[in-house]
Amino acid sequence: MKQKSLILMAALALLVAACGPKRVEEKPAETATQVPAATESSGAQSAGVATVDTSAGSTSQGALGPDGPLGSQRVIYFDFDSSEIRSEYIDVIAAHGRFLAGNANLRVRLEGHTDERGSREYNIGLGEQRAQTVKRALALQGVQDAQIATVSYGEERPAAAGSDENAYSKNRRVEIVYIN
Amino acid sequence: MKRRAIHCALLACALLQSAMAWAQLKIDITRGVTDPVPVALVPFARAIPADGGLDIAAVVQKDLESSGRFRALDRAAMPSQPSRAADVNAASWRAQRTDYVVVGRVVTGTTDNVQLQFELVNVLTGQVLLNDAVTVPQSAVRAGAHRVADRIFEKITGFRGAFATRIAYVSVDGAPPNQRYQLWVADADGENYRVATQSSQPIMSPAWSADGEWLAYVSFENRVSAIFVQRVRTGERRQVSARRGVNGAPAFSPDGRRLALTLSGGNGNLDVYVLDLTSQALTRITEDPAIDTEPAWSVDGQTLYFTSDRGGGPQIYSAPAQSGARARRITFGSSYTARPRVSPDGKMLAVVTQDSSGFRVGVVDLASGQITALSRGGLDESPSFAPNGAALIYAGRDRGQSVLAMVSVDGTVSSRLKADQGEVREPVWGPFLN
C-alpha cells in the first residue's frame, strides 16, 4: 500500500511538474516509476501549478477513478495525538484542493478518525481537529467552504482491528470522500 | 467491629453474578475479600404458582455472592430448610460455620401481587435482625428478589445494596467496515436484557436520567453525530440535537430538565453547552479553542465538570452550569485525565487517567484533588459509579478481548465480564429503582 502511494504521488508530482500553466488531460498513474517521496515533494513545489481537466463526465473515471491520482490517494494518516499534516501528504491534499477549486460543483466530506487510545468523546474532538486541518489546507487552494463537510468518528470506526501500533497507525486518519 | 467496618468500607455491590451468562456476558470474580461473610439462604416456601416458580433464595444468593463479600452455604449442607425464624435451630447452623440464615415465604397477596416475606437470623447471637416483606406484582417477582437482597446486604454491611438496578451498554459485532452497533439495557444481574436501539452506524455515550426513565445517547444513524433521548420503558425516542458539526457527550441534569452536551458548530471547535429540553434555549459554557467535552453535572446541578486540553493534554475542569464563567482546573497529577463522572455523594469523580500502566480508571477526591487509580490498566475507559457509590463499572481489554469490569472504590474487590461474542463498551450504571 505504501509503495503504491509512493508511485501515485510520484505520478501526481510528475503530472504537476511537467505541465506548467497549461490545462492537461490527467493520465493514469501506472506509467511512473517509484521515486522517493521527499524528492518528488520538493520537485512539485518548485513547479508551476496545473489544473487537471474535469469535463462533466470524468468524476467517476479519470481523476477520481480508482486508478486516478486523486481517486486512490484519499486517506491522510496522522501521528499519535497530532492533527498536523505530515510533509508526505502536503502535495496530495494540495492536488485535491486544486481539483476542487477548479470544479466548484464538487463536494467532499472529510471524515476524521483516531486510534482507540483514550477517552471516546475526547477522540471525537481529535478526529474533528484532523478533519479541520485538512479542510484548512484545501481552503488554501481556493476550495469554498460550502464544498467541504467534516465529520468525526473518533475511534468508533476503525479501519483496522487490533491494539498494536500497526492497527493504530492505520486508524489515525482523515478520509477524503467525494460526495457528488 | 473493626473487621465489620472494614467489610463495610469494602463493599462493591456488584450487580453481576459469578457463574451466570449475562446478556451474552459472563462474570468472574477476580478478587474478593479474604474473609467473606458466611450466610445461608434457605429456599423460600411458596404456594405454587404464586411466584411463577422463581427460586427467590437463589437470586438473593447470587446477588450477595457477586459482591465478593459473602460466601453462601451449599444447600446440601443445610441441616434443615425452615421457612420461619422460630424454626431456625441456631446451634445446628453454627455447626455449619455460617453466621447468618435467611428464611422466607412467598405469599399471594391481593389481586396480582406477590409478597416475599423473609427473616434474617444472626445464628451467633440467635437474634432476628430483620422481619420484613417485599410486595411486587407477579410480573416483577425477580425485581422483588433483588430488593430482598438489597435489604439483607444493607442490614449486614451497613451500606445500601444496588442489586435492584439496571445497566446500559453498547455492543459492536462484525468486522470493519460492516459493523452492527447495539445499545442494551439489562437488569443488574444480567437478566431481562434487551436491545434499546441498533444501527449500522456508531452508537456511543449512553447516559441515564436521574429517574431511570430515559437514556440519552449519540447516534451516527444519519451519517453524522446526533443526540437522541429514548424512554426506556416504551422505546419511544426523539432527536434533541443535530446541529452542524459534532453533537456529543449528552448528560441529563439531576432534575432532568436540561442536557449538557458538546457541540462544535461549523468550525470544528468542541465546546460544552447546556440545552434546556423544554424551551430549547442553548447556553454556552466554554468558549475556548481547545477541545472541551464530556460534561458531568454536580449533584446540586450547579456545576459542570468536563474534559479540556486547554492546558496541553486532557485534564478535568469545572465551571458554573448557568453561564460561561471562568473554568477552574481540577486535576494536576497525571498528563492525561479525562471523562469525569460524579459520585452519588458528589465528593468524587470517576475518571480515566494515564500512567506507566497505560489507561486506567480511578477516582478524584474533589476536596484534595488527589487521583487514585483503581483498575489494573492498559486500555481501561468509561467508568460509571454504582448508585450506592461503592464501585465503578468500566470497559477494558483483557488479552485482546473487550471486557466490562467492576472495581470497588476502595480497590479491594474486582470482577470481570467477558462477552461471548462481539465487543462490549461504555457501560453505564442506572439509578436506584423505587
Give structural notes.
- The complex is a heterodimer of chains A (180) and B (434).
- Chain A is α+β, with helices and mostly antiparallel strands and 180 residues long.
- Chain A folds into two domains: 73 residues, no CATH class; 106 residues, 60s Ribosomal Protein L30, Chain: A, CATH 3.30.1330.60.
- Chain A is 38% helix and 12% strand.
- Chain A is built from five helices and four strands; from the N terminus they run ααβαβαβαβ.
- The longest helix of chain A is centred in the last third of the chain and has 21 residues.
- The radius of gyration of chain A is 16 Å and the shape is globular.
- In chain A, 44% of the residues are buried.
- The N terminus of chain A is likely disordered.
- Chain B is mostly beta strands.
- Chain B folds into two domains: 122 residues, TolB, N-terminal domain (Rossmann fold, 3-Layer(aba) Sandwich); 264 residues, TolB, C-terminal domain (Neuraminidase).
- Chain B has four helices and 32 strands.
- Chain B has a six-stranded antiparallel β-sheet with strand order 1-2-31-30-29-28, with no helix packed on it. In chain B, strands 3, 4, 5, 6, 7 and 8 form a six-stranded mixed β-sheet that branches. In chain B, strands 11-10-9-32 form a four-stranded antiparallel β-sheet, with no helix packed on it.
- In chain B, strand 1 and strand 2 form a beta hairpin.
- In chain B, helix 2 crosses helix 4.
- The N terminus of chain B is likely disordered.
- Classes of the chains: A alpha+beta (180), B mainly beta (434).
- Chains A and B meet through helix 4 and strand 3 of A and loops of B.
* Helix amount of chain B: under 10%
Overall 3D geometry of chain B?
Answer: elongated
The total count of strands of chain A amounts to 4
Record field, number of beta strands of chain B: 32
Order of helices and strands of chain A: HHEHEHEHE
Count of helical segments of chain B? 4
Q: Helical content of chain A, roughly? A: 25-40%
Query: What is the structural class of chain A?
Result: alpha+beta
- The average pLDDT score of chain B comes to 89
- Determine the mean pLDDT of chain A: 75
The biggest chain-chain interface is: A-B, 28 and 39 residues
CATH class of the largest domain in chain B: Mainly Beta
Q: Which CATH architecture of the largest domain in chain B would you pick?
A: 6 Propeller
Strand order of the largest sheet of chain B: 1-2-31-30-29-28
CATH architecture of the largest domain in chain A: 2-Layer Sandwich
The neighbouring-strand order within the major sheet of chain A is: 1-4-2-3
**Helix- and strand-based class of chain B?**
mainly beta
**Percent of sequence in beta strands of chain B:** 35-45%
Oligomer: heterodimer
